[in-house]
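Minutes, project check-in

Agenda point 3 was the complex the collaborators sent over. CS summarized: two entities, 465 residues total, and the question is how they sit relative to each other. Sequences were read into the notes so everyone works from the same version.
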Amino acid sequence: MTESLYERIGGEPAVEAAVDLFYRKVLHDTTTAPFFFHTDMDAQRAKQKSFLTMVFGGPNEYTGKDLRTAHAQLVKDGLNDSHFDAVAGHLQATLEELGVAADTVSEVMAIAGSTRDDVLNR
Amino acid sequence: MTTSSTDNTLPPETPAARVRYGDKIVRCAPGETVLEGLLRAGAEIPYSCRNGTCMTCISRAVRGTVPAEAQKGIKDTLRGQDYFLSCICKPTEDLEIAPPEDADLFGRAAVTAVDHLSKNICRVRLTSATPLYYHAGQFLNLRRDDGLTRSYSLASVPSLEPYLEIHVKRLPGGQMSNWIYDDLQPGVSIDIQGPSGGCFYFPGNKAQPMLLIGNGSGLAPLIGIARDALKDGHTGPIHLYHGTQFSGGLYLDDTLRQMDADHGNFFYNACLSRGEDAECCHGRAEDIALADHTDLSDWRVFLCGYPPMVRDAQRRAFLAGAALADIYIDAFELRDLRTEPRE
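CS then shared the predicted structure for the full assembly.
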């Protein structure tokens, strides 16, 4: 039986390892950081953990509707494709830094890419 | 389908949940909290921080179920009795709520000392009528006899002191802080609720370096945490930065310098944002601390005091490499409006 994407990537410990790295990259980037200035960091980390669990193909209750609701105000504030691309780039860099195999990274990035329209409320 | 069966049940997409509180019934719009709805309707309900920290607005759900996140940080015994925080409760169904039962929440404590350590800060020591299990750095709610309630962090360490110690900074327009500073006398009893909060020293990982940054009376939890860690045999370096405007605000300067002299791994840095003093650093405590320690990977960080400082330093400490789970914060949310800008 083949392992699921979530199992191959390392399950919950992998998400736990990725979330701080990913969040830190997003905050270091001056184009994406301003969208996070007024959020509670601990709550934000919990949301990012849910998001990463989803794109890692793991068990989660995150839905497209949640992504839309969560980003609606940010889209009004100017969130656009360039920010989405930047965040996706940080996700890819995080996975590479953690030594995830290239074809697994591609699978994750495909799931992440599929959230674009929900995130940007289109 | 009969119409009568739907009277008390809102369909999932109904834009409002009804909340009954005493003789008032309010409708909470989606995203609106129970507290916001009640205040809009003119209900009398105590509250303070409005962000799920201080526990002042704790209430009981008599009918209906509150979302799980509305019970965040409430101890199990109270959660089991359907206590929740109205300021973070966005109701998803109709609720009937009631004020807390006093006996569930409040104990009585006697004031044993009030020492004025600076022109704005006093140290209050209290003895609880029943022993309190707590950690230095957690906070208590104090309730005056007229119901006015405010939160104060604990500087005392239970294994070192028989009393509870808090530091109260007098704030412009602060009803409670001015009353405590000016009028509170030893011998008086007051209601206490708590302890609450997760900003304290967890034993273990004794070699981990620790960075403690606080301004004003944000020193109270930090000195408690530092003494708790030292008592526990922490071996890693503990760097404490206390920030204030002028040297008069360094209200435990002698104590901290003595701790620095007594312990090879405790380092005290007094930081003045406006005053000049040869013994002090000059600038904001968080700026100085984060310039002194640029790589915080595997550090434990404690940030206490003025909320914008705490939030800003939390982000900067995280960017400097500290894991978010290793950053403990205690932001002093102020109920009374601040009328003077930050130092």
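Noted in discussion: Chain A has a mean pLDDT of 91.
Follow-up: revisit at the next meeting once the mutant set is ready.
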